[in-house]
Specification:
This protein is α/β, with parallel strands linked by helices and 312 residues long. The protein has helices at 25-36, 53-56, 62-70, 90-109, 140-150, 168-174, 217-236, 262-279, 294-308, and strands at residues 3-7, 43-47, 78-81, 84-86, 115-118, 157-161, 180-187, 207-212, 240-245, 284-288. 37% of the residues lie in helices and 16% in strands. The radius of gyration is 17 Å and the shape is globular. Bound molecules: zinc ion. The site of zinc ion has 7 residues, from loops.
Amino acid sequence: MLAAYITHPDCTRHEMGPGHPECPERLAAIQDRLLATGLLDYMLPCEAPLATEEQLERAHNALYVRQVLQSAPAEGYLQVDPDTRMNPYTVPAALRAAGAAVHATDLVLGGEVPVAFCAVRPPGHHAERDATMGFCFFNNAAVAVRHALDVHGLSRVALIDFDVHHGNGSEDILAGDERVLMCSIFEIGLYPFNADDARSLKDAPNMVNVGLPKRSGSEAFRAAVTDHWLPALETFRPDLLVVSAGFDAHREDDMGNLGLADADYEWVTRQLMRVAERHAKGRVVSCLEGGYVLNPLARSAAAHIKVLIGAD
Ligand SMILES: [Zn+2]
């Protein structure tokens, strides 16, 4: 098998009300596309385990973890931030999402598959050490990064985030951790609004943050990857790449305005695979973040996965 495809039915039972863009249908759209294109034939389907508190506490503080685990409503919804709600199934979904990222890391570092894609929700990259934010409860990618470092004993892990929104949660958790290089490209002026006001981005040496103005388009995105991410990754020489794979910078996704196309996701994944092959034995763990219009989400995720498994 060329890749693991890690998901769980629990991830579709969490939902935040009618019309909410972060909806269960997102996962079905991706899986349908992978089936239709035949890509799923090359992937090992895996059931996501529940993350343990110990695993979560590598990225979150223990009090916060317990608070999330205990706060789901018995029925209806609990509003936890202006954009984010819990339903009775949110906790198992969030535990499966983080557990998928941990399991992906175990499979890839154990040599069972070279790469893994976690088709999970809730997403994670806005979740801070002790705060739920922007549809995110536990920071799946950051939990995977810390698992690779603390449990598998890797020395250097790169976290790559191409979601249209800045991964403030991953930055909050990982800024200053010299074992981690975080590379991010995001749109300025969008949620979480931390790049253009007093809550400025953290100026840690292990953060490569590139904010692009709206309507920057494919060329500016690719230039930012080439000029900022790739030299930093080349110097860092990661043992593993973890990807926060958000597809909401797509031009057909109205959540952002960067104007990317399917081909940009294919291109950026190819650049990352070259880094992984040179330094990390080809090892990549990719976790779904944003992407809200179902058709471009499914196409972009398939373009990303096609390169991950080397079927391009
Ligand atoms: Zn996003």
